[in-house]
């Protein structure tokens, strides 16, 4: 997946699964931005920030949705739509209109005991790396 387009992770509840997925992407040299809803203490951000190709943005709850829309409609996203990975399905559904405007794909990340699972828009589980590559 080296050379793949970037991935934007939207974390609203819990961050263990998103963190593990961000580390997975970092190992594959896929750049990703992690948007976290709510203020995160600096010492917590320090746990994940040092990994290559991973950028963290901690956004206050009040500004989270407007920042998310601006990120989706940014000139960079318009030119090369990233893969968006959401932690909450209602947010993914609310952003569907904006994602369609830029022809971007979106996945849902669900945390499990063993880590996380990814689902596409048809609620079908993304099973392997080859299937994930089609989105990046």
Task: Assign an overall shape.
Answer: globular
Q: Provide the gyration radius in Å.
A: 14 Å
Question: Poorly predicted ranges (pLDDT <50, ≥5 residues)?
Answer: none
> Order of strands across the biggest sheet?
3-2-1-4-5-6-7
What percentage of amino acids are in beta strands? 25-35%
Using DSSP, what is the number of strands?
7
Distance between the termini: 8 Å
Kindly name the structural category: alpha/beta
The description of the largest β-sheet is:
7 strands, mixed
Task: Supply the number of helical segments.
Answer: 7
What is the N-to-C succession of helices and strands?
EHEHEHHEHHEEEH
pLDDT averaged over residues:
85
Write a concise synopsis of the structure shown.
This protein is of the alpha/beta class and 136 residues long. It is built from seven helices and seven strands, in the order βαβαβααβααβββα. The relative contact order is 0.19.
What would you note in describing this structure?
This protein starts with 6 loop residues before the first strand and ends with a helix. The chain is globular, with a radius of gyration of 14 Å. The longest helix is centred in the N-terminal third of the chain and has 12 residues, at 16-27. Strands 3-2-1-4-5-6-7 form a 7-stranded mixed sheet. It has helices spanning 16-27, 42-48, 61-72, 75-79, 89-94, 96-101, 129-133, and strands spanning 7-11, 32-37, 54-59, 83-86, 106-112, 115-119, 125-126. It is α/β, with parallel strands linked by helices and 136 residues long. The model has no long low-confidence stretch (mean pLDDT 85). The chain has a domain at 27-119. It is 39% helix and 26% strand.
